[in-house]
């Protein structure tokens, strides 16, 4: 069977990683990537061997900069079976009509509204809901992290309610414009949009969230309190987490005191771009008291949605019916243990 051709529209934080991850799979290949301006990133994409597609109005600018271009963004649609839209939040919406007119499938990201696609995706929670779909949306990094742990816990021990606080990175490391630089900034529109985003995949879950922006670039940290339908034990929840895909238990006793050590671990594991694809849960920070569960988890915002994009492509293009089999293939290609 020939490989599925994946076009990546928007070659930024997420697009670069999706392109790299697609190029490592056996059943799909990169048809091309897009850039709007002739930046160092555009030049590097060409040097990595990715065909570059640009807006028609930018062809001259790329020519003047001496960056070879394969065609226009619209021409990328013709060269692709599916587009992964990694443009900034709310930009993807404008592209949907173009993908539709070209008769192409498209995966959108968490910066778009659930209503754009009517289906939101997470490999652990609802792989099969995107089966054969023309459009789907991989939920945001925070939502992906929450679903990775909450979906398996809810399956094992039903959850009555979740109260989570998201301590969010101020900006991505490659972005010098974010903030706060020295402070903590509460999200005052409460409860925050993260709870409804989790519900776009698990509509039955009673979840409420708050969020605080922090002066860090490397990871988000979640504090989660969940009321369970019945009494449980710490050991029972840890067993569920140990069995859950893309959940990595870390231990403060072994030196993983916070997010810097989680990022150091990703480097030590030899990950592409030092990415931590898994959600990291502190094993010694998981605690059940009666029917209340408490835990902390860290999310590498640049990375955790990347394997989900690969699985979403497989579900939409009907490449692999079984969620577990797709997760295994993606994990093997990206060096994720489980
Ligand atoms: P980014 O700004 O790093 O990258 C976006 C890319 O799209 C840039 O290369 C930009 O030049 C390009 N672009 C801008 N306008 C364009 C247009 N009209 N046509 C084509 N390309 C255009 O953004 P990102 O962080 O990679 O976010 C992409 C999506 O992924 C958003 O929906 C975001 O919410 C979501 N997401 C981001 C993160 C994160 O932490 N960075 C995590 C998960 C999901």
Describe this structure in words.
With 338 residues, the protein is an alpha/beta fold. It has helices at 13-23, 40-47, 59-65, 73-79, 92-101, 123-126, 141-156, 194-199, 234-243, 259-268, 305-316, 323-334, and strands at residues 4-9, 28-34, 52-54, 71-72, 82-85, 105-108, 120-121, 135-138, 159-169, 184-186, 207-214, 220-228, 247-250, 279-282, 287-289, 292-299. The protein is globular. Nicotinamide-adenine-dinucleotide is lined by residues 9-15, 34, 36, 86-89, 91, 109-112, 140-141, 172, 301-302, 305.
List the keywords.
338 residues, alpha/beta, eight-stranded parallel sheet, binds nicotinamide-adenine-dinucleotide
Report mean pLDDT, rounded to a whole number: 97
Terminal-residue CA separation: 27 Å
Number of helices: 12
Helix-residue proportion: 25-40%
Overall morphology: globular
Give the C-alpha Rg: 20 Å
List cofactors, ions and other ligands. nicotinamide-adenine-dinucleotide
Number of strands: 16
Strand-pairing-aware structural class: alpha/beta
Q: Could you state the order of secondary-structure elements as H and E?
A: EHEHEHEHEHEEHEHEEHEEHEHEEEHH
- Largest sheet, described in full? 8 strands, parallel
Low-confidence stretches: none
What fraction strand? 15-25%
Strand order of the largest sheet: 4-3-2-1-5-6-8-7
